[in-house]
Amino acid sequence: MKINRNFEKLFIFIGLVFSLQCCSVVENYPSNVQVESKEGTFNYSMKGAGSGKSIKLSVENAEKNIFEVIMFRGIVGTDLQIPLVDNEVTSRDQNKKFYDVFFGDKIYRNFITSSVEKLSPSEKVKGGFKTSVKFSINLAALRVYLEQNKIIRTFGY
C-alpha cells in the first residue's frame, strides 16, 4: 500500500505541473520560426510568431523568438541548424548584462534589414494576441557583433 501512495503522490504532482503549464496566460511560440529564403550570402528572410498582452508586444516577442532560435537553438533543415551560441545556459549566466541590453533595449533590431511585416491580422488568444511576422536578418553583422562582445568565438562556433 505504501508504494501505491507514493505513485498517487507522484501522479498528483505531475498533474499539477501540467495543469499549471496549460493555464499560462501567454505562450511563446519559438518553434514556429522558419527560414523563408536566403537573400544573398548573409541575409535571411525569416518568419516567426510571438504572443503578448498587446499587438505591439506580440510583434516584439516574435522578433525576439526569431533571434533566440538563431542564437540558441538553430533551425533544423537549413544552413542555420547549428546555433551561434554554444551553450545557452552558460552564456546567459556569464553574459547576463549583455543579454539584458541586447533583448531589453532591442539591440537585435539593428540586424533587421527589412521592415517587420505582419503576415496576417493578429489573432486574439487567451491573455492577449498572437502575431506572425516576416523580416530579413543580416546574419554576418549579428555574428560580428556577438564576436566583438565575446559571446561567440571569432573562428566559428
Question: What's this entry about, in short?
Answer:
The chain has about 160 residues and is of the alpha+beta class.
Can you describe this structure?
This protein has 157 residues and is of the alpha+beta class. It has one domain (26-148). It is 42% helix and 20% strand. The chain has 5 helices and 5 strands; from the N terminus they run H-E-E-H-H-H-E-E-E-H. The protein has helices spanning 2-22, 55-73, 88-94, 96-104, 139-148, and strands at residues 34-39, 43-52, 117-118, 123-125, 128-138. Strands 1, 2, 3, 4 and 5 form a 5-stranded antiparallel β-sheet that branches. A hairpin with a 2-residue loop joins strand 4 (123-125) and strand 5 (128-138). Residues 16-30 have low confidence and may be disordered.
How do the strands and helices of this protein lay out in sequence?
Blueprint lengths: L1 H21 L11 E6 L3 E10 L2 H19 L14 H7 L1 H9 L12 E2 L4 E3 L2 E11 H10 L9
Antiparallel strand pairs: 1-2, 2-5, 3-5, 4-5
Main sheet makeup: 5 strands, antiparallel
What proportion of the residues is helical, as a percent range? 40-55%
Tell me the series of helices and strands, N- to C-terminal: HEEHHHEEEH
The CA-CA distance between the termini, in Å, is: 53 Å
Q: Write down how many β-strands occur, each being a DSSP E stretch of 2 or more residues.
A: 5
SS field, number of helical segments: 5
What's the pLDDT, averaged over the residues?
Answer: 81
Q: Could you list the spans in which at least 5 consecutive residues all have pLDDT below 50? A: 16-30
Number of domains: 1
General form? globular
Structural class comes to: alpha+beta
Radius of gyration: 19 Å
**β-strand amount:** 15-25%
